[in-house]
């Protein structure tokens, strides 16, 4: 197995598993409002209710996309990619998919009512 395929594959699996591990407490609403950990949009800090709703939604979306990154990582380990530089580069950039749940969470937060 080629190291050009092995490294992105293992990296994608690691990133996906790490993100899932970080999101589980948020999904279970176990992280109180803070400045360091969670989905921290201005709307998140308007109320405790918003904090938990946004973090639960964001964690769920992040887990979904992290699973997709893990699948891409596993595929990178088993699909022959010799000489297919474009596909290798695409698989190496798979963690960029995590931008999607950030946008989804931001759009979700915008729909919540303000407590002002």
UniProtKB/TrEMBL annotation:
Pfam families (UniProt xref): SdpI (PF13630)
Taxonomic superkingdom: Bacteria
InterPro entries found in the cross-reference section: SdpI/YhfL (IPR025962)
Keyword Membrane carried by entry: yes
Keywords: Membrane, Transmembrane, Transmembrane helix
Transmembrane segments: 6-27, 62-81, 87-109
Protein name: SdpI family protein
């Amino acid at each position: 197995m080629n190291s050009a395929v092995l490294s992105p594959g293992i990296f994608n699996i690691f990133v996906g598993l790490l993100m899932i591990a970080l999101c589980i407490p948020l999904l279970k609403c176990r992280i109180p409002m803070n400045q360091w950990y969670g989905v921290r949009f201005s709307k998140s800090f308007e109320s405790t209710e918003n904090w938990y709703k946004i973090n639960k939604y964001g964690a769920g979306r992040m887990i979904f996309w992290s699973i997709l990154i893990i699948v891409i990582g596993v595929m990178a380990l088993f699909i022959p990619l010799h000489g297919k530089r474009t596909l290798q580069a695409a698989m190496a950039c798979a963690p960029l998919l995590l931008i999607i749940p950030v946008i989804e969470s931001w759009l979700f937060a915008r729909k919540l009512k303000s407590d002002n």
